[in-house]
Amino acid sequence: MTTQTSSPRRYRGSAIEARRAQRRQQLIDAACEVYGRNGYRHSSVKQVCDAAGLTQRYFYESFSHSDELLIACYEQAATALREEITGAAERASVDRAERGRAMLLAYFQALKARPLIANLLLVEIRGISPAVDKAIFRALQAMNRDLTRVVVRPDHQPDELLHAGVMGGVIHIALHWMASGYRQPTDVVANTAFKLSAAMHG
Amino acid sequence: MTTQTSSPRRYRGSAIEARRAQRRQQLIDAACEVYGRNGYRHSSVKQVCDAAGLTQRYFYESFSHSDELLIACYEQAATALREEITGAAERASVDRAERGRAMLLAYFQALKARPLIANLLLVEIRGISPAVDKAIFRALQAMNRDLTRVVVRPDHQPDELLHAGVMGGVIHIALHWMASGYRQPTDVVANTAFKLSAAMHG
DNA sequence: CTAATCTGACAATGTGTATTGTCAAAGCAT
DNA sequence: ATGCTTTGACAATACACATTGTCAGATTAG
């Protein structure tokens, strides 16, 4: 009688589910890199597998379509970004405006620190498929909730459309900034975005 | 001695260049329809040609890649939209803010009146190729110039990044509105966008 | 009418890629 | 050591589509 209950066999020290999960994660990390660099639609399954050091059969072990892998990449990156941003807000002062400014600064800092992820999150992701669009929508809504919770006064009725506009505006500022090769200083960009977000406080 | 100097031959009453131009236009109009409905990347050359009532050979007569046709569609639609918007601004009062509001209203009215064109202009166009991205960039800059000329005070130094943000915000508001099936009344949407654009007047 | 050219339908080719299948070598349990 | 599973490399298949080529019939000029 062995110690593990579930896995009938171990390879290289780990159980079958652990190996699968590891390979899945390898694929996701490699795909973030490849998709961010070449763009999703100019990347093939084979390229991703090569970058991950795995064979194509392992792609089909964890994902049924390329879309699924893309969504996994996106959600991992978006979640990490969200955590960075909310963390920055909590470390900032209690003033709502200052928290908003801190979130924006953290946002642009993160984009500059990982340009490939930024490209994946803001450029390559668009217009792939309805399933991907839904994932984007969910991620933006989650961010919107964070933002509302942190910067909007509790008594203030939130305007969904206006919030969407502010987020879209911030994203476009980021896109312009990225396209220019991150020319302007990060805090200047964050401040510009902050001006835009003032529409929410009114 | 015939009346026409250039064309060596006439078919169905028109010269060769005229026939070519007509077929080209047929292809553009059909492509706007097909791309707007199915999305650019889910449309084939054959589908567009069928919709235009032409054979594939005529596609290659006027365009060398699909991208070229897409760009032609986009530019035709964007130019028409721009003319509608600037026309509305000129018909409005001389007050800068009111002109801005009139432009926004005209923008959202146009999007609602031609949903397929709206889908092409704001959704399907994104992330196709560098050449298409350049066309988008040009069109947005042209709009930005219109906007600046009409609503910003002449003595006010324009902030490029902030303007990009406002335009991106307006576009996102439109996207949300479209995704909801144009739920909210057009003037309410335009007013929301107007609030956002207030960041420019500051 | 006749010859030249334009038109439209369709076949032929080429390419890139997803997806499935095969198989020998390596790794583990007993 | 031996038999079973897993792994990795690669071949085989399938498919969709762009792009080029062919050709008979329609259209026009002279």
Brief sketch in words of this structure:
Chain A has 202 residues and is mainly α. Chain A is built from 9 helices and 2 strands; from the N terminus they run ββααααααααα.
- The rough form of chain A would be described as elongated
The chain pair with the largest interface is:
A-B, 33 and 33 residues
Rg of chain A, nearest Å: 20 Å
In helices, the fraction of residues of chain A equals over 70%
Number of helices of chain A: 9
Reported for the largest beta sheet of chain A, the result is: 2 strands, antiparallel
CATH architecture of the largest domain in chain A: Orthogonal Bundle
Oligomer state of the chains in this structure: homodimer
- Ends apart, CA distance between termini of chain A: 68 Å
> Percent of residues of chain A in beta strands?
under 5%
Which strand order spans the largest sheet of chain A, edge to edge or round the barrel? Answer: 1-2
SSE class of chain A: mainly alpha
- By CATH reckoning, the class of the largest domain in chain A would read Mainly Alpha
Within CATH, the superfamily of the largest domain in chain A carries the name: Tetracycline Repressor, domain 2
CATH topology value of the largest domain in chain A: Tetracycline Repressor, domain 2
How many structurally independent domains of chain A?
2
> How many β-strands of chain A, per DSSP?
2
> What is the string of SSEs of chain A from the N terminus onward?
EEHHHHHHHHH
Outline the low-pLDDT stretches of chain A.
1-7
